[in-house]
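so the lab meeting is tmrw and i was supposed to have these ready like two days ago... anyway. pasting both below. for each one the top line is the aa sequence and the line under it is the structure tokens. i havent really looked at them closely yet so no promises
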Amino acid sequence: VQLQASGGGLVQAGGSLRLSCAASGTTFALNAMGWYRQAPGKQRDLVASITTGSGSTNYADSVKGRFTISRDNAKNTVYLQMNNLKSEDAAVYYCNARAPRYTGWVDYWGQGTLVTVSS
């Protein structure tokens, strides 16, 4: 599975951005896709995820009510709409896809897209 992320950039605090992540390859095996972010000196944390089947979503508390994750299964693409961006949202955002395995699961990662929020 290959993941191609896009949509990062510079935005003022309070502004909006939309990230996109297109999956290719053995996408039928995926059961969830999502976004993680990593700020300098910090660990990579989950931002939001969505299952490919039911579309069930999960959000980090810090983004609830501001970010929305959605998917287009026909395009194997997941989106992250980010509204009311804050300085603490600045980070490199990584697209993630997960597929089940007998012993657990395997994670695939995109190349990361930088989100910068100016105050």
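ok protien two:
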Amino acid sequence: QVQVVESGGGQVQSGGSLILTCEAAVATLIFSTYDMAWYRQAPGKQRELVATITTRRATTYEDSVKGRFTISRDNAKKTVFLLMNSLKPEDTGVYYCNRPSGSLKWGQGTQVSVSS
């Protein structure tokens, strides 16, 4: 099963920015055929879909992050990025990447903590 590794999380103040990175352990050609997504899980809540990017780089966003988060990909590096601006305390959680179907092996995620 394909494994992913997320990184880039940290502690920031409200209004700050972070860039998350997700690298997939799969051949470049195969990665380029995957739609990809970022998810997050806030403390005590279920994992939720935050953003998606298709193979053609079409993107979708959960309403609360529209205009603040940007998902992008670099197929040559088998990597998906999530640029997060204007962070809010409610963005706090563990962020994961996977396909929209969730078919890849879930990674450890990367913790994002936003203080007010």
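from a quick look at the 2nd one: The longest strand covers residues 18-24. The chain has one helix and ten strands. will dig more after coffe
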